[in-house]
Automatic annotation (TrEMBL), chain A:
Any Pfam family: BPD_transp_1
Membrane topology: Multi-pass membrane protein
Domain of life: Bacteria
The ABC transmembrane type-1 domain, residue ranges: 59-247
Protein name: Inner membrane ABC transporter permease protein YdcV
PROSITE patterns: ABC_TM1 (PS50928)
Gene Ontology cellular-component terms listed: plasma membrane
Keywords: Cell inner membrane, Cell membrane, Membrane, Transmembrane, Transmembrane helix, Transport
Membrane-traversing stretches: 59-85, 97-118, 124-143, 184-207, 227-247
Endpoints of the signal sequence: none
Statement: the UniProt record of this protein carries the keyword NADP: no
Gene: ydcV_6
Organism encoding this protein: Roseivivax jejudonensis
CDD domains, per database record: TM_PBP2
UniProtKB/TrEMBL annotation, chain B:
EC class of the enzyme, as a word: hydrolase
GO CC term (a single one): ATP-binding cassette (ABC) transporter complex
Name used for this protein in its record: Spermidine/putrescine import ATP-binding protein PotA
Keyword Transit peptide recorded: no
Pfam family, one: ABC_tran
Keyword Hydrolase recorded: yes
Domain spans labelled ABC transporter: 6-236
InterPro entries, per the entry: AAA+_ATPase, ABC_SmlMolc_Importer, ABC_transporter-like_ATP-bd, ABC_transporter-like_CS, P-loop_NTPase, Transp-assoc_OB_typ2
Amino acid sequence: MRHAGRALLVVVMLFLVGPFILICLTGLSGGETLAFPPDGLSLRWVIRVFEIESFRDSFALSLTLGIGATLIALILGIPAAYALVRYDVPGADAIRNLLTAPIIVPGIIVGLALLRHLVIPSGLGVTLALFLGHTALLIPYAVRVTAASLQNLRADIEDAAILLGASRIGAFVRVTLPNIKNGIMAAFIIGFITSFNEVPVSLFLTGPGVATLPVDMLLYMEYNYDPSIAALSGLLALMSLGVVLTAERLLGLSRYV
Amino acid sequence: MSDPFLELDALTLTYGDTIAVEALDFHMAAGELVALLGPSGCGKTTTMRAIAGLMRPAAGHIRLDGRDITRVAPNRRGVGLVFQSYALFPHLSVYENVAFGLRIARIRAEELERRTHAALGAVGLTDFAGRAPAELSGGQQQRVALARSIVMEPKLLLLDEPLSNLDARLRLEMRTELARLQREFGIAMLYVTHDQAEALALADRIIVMNDGKVEQVGTPEDIYDRPTSVFVADFVGFENTFRVERGALSGANGPVDAGFAVTEGARGLAWRPQDVTLGQGPHRGRIEGASYLGQSVEYLMSSPLGPIKAERPAHEKRHATGTEVTFDLPQARAVELARG
């Protein structure tokens, strides 16, 4: 029984980590095509990744998009979370459910709906549409994660700050914000990674010369079947891993997710 | 009489459609230490929040030191509040907690430092200035909360159940401390409590509240020895309290003659257990239980008046459980209650 359990564990771990290892090895291939096992080991495709101009552009776009959309989602989401936690908002449950919608509804549908009913009728620029789409997608994360840390904070410390002379906003900035700082950082990291890895919504909201990195990689693969795509995937996975591990170290990210 | 320092004038406080406090009037003098005493849910904490400005009254006025503060923002009232939960700022050190209000008021650095240290010294926490609140005991946290309020030199300091979270030894310590701080700084203090012992030991004057209204105002002696209503008598330990109906005591199964002519207009009569005498008198009861307390014996009796509690000196004739006894509720020891 114990052996069976252990075997199952090994299979599951292989299933989870296996693809990552395969991709990394493929990316280190010395050959010309995307294949496993790799045709000798070399760093030539890893170097090649940095030479492809469209990757550089789409990486910059994804980075800006991830940071910008997450910041806007937080600016909108923190007050919403505050209101939901601290006040008796009419229909709070409905709002909470509505906020989970973008998490539950498939990205394809969100992307298509945004394209069909927002971008096309309004003639919105592609980049702006991407920002809006990603912000909408990230608000639920921003609200839920900051709400979780607000819930763990006593409400009366704001009253205490006000009675010591602070204004309402001053009390929030001086007392509440520093105490939910970690939650906000966690929300930022989750939001950034979500945005950076997002494909389905971005797929609908890209246009000529404007593509996020994951979408650009899909497009690249249609015409080039070389190991650079595997090398890039490996690099991105390492980047995400680095961010998450750092966050876990500094903030205990797992408490918020 | 000079103008009162704090005056509540027909203050009505509501939560939605629920009336928590109705047309409340009371006043206190400068430098006075007043307890707002009542059972939980009587509206005392709500009243305190309204005085602090954390709650907007539905009607009525609050005046402090000659100024109507009913509509003044809570951060401009000069009122300090020590929360029952202390409400310390978890991300700041003890020193920064105490200095918080001074920083907001943009007090100069030297003065800020001097006043913060003085306040920490006053509550005996000088050595803990660098600690985080979470590293302190409950009693120490409360002293930080106290220092954080008094450093602002408020006109009025409100305290919510200041002794309730402390153990017996710390209670005594804190009680002495509060009295000393009040003498030293001359700050008027109003504190809310549901514990009559806490109110009696600390206050110059006690305001007993029940169900959103003032039941009685008086010195601790007034409240303890001369309650004026059935509610207050019950609350301060007159365990044999009866309403009076048509000149008779209202018992469990109808009126019972008191054995003496009840004063016209008295709405209730009350006796402490020590004042009930056994072995003679107009009433009959049955001993349901007896507890030996060392100096005395406490009897629980059933009678046509309902349950009666009597406490007799240990050297008196003992009565066994289950025996029938006669007892007296002597007129001389009765406290007449003007309100039912």
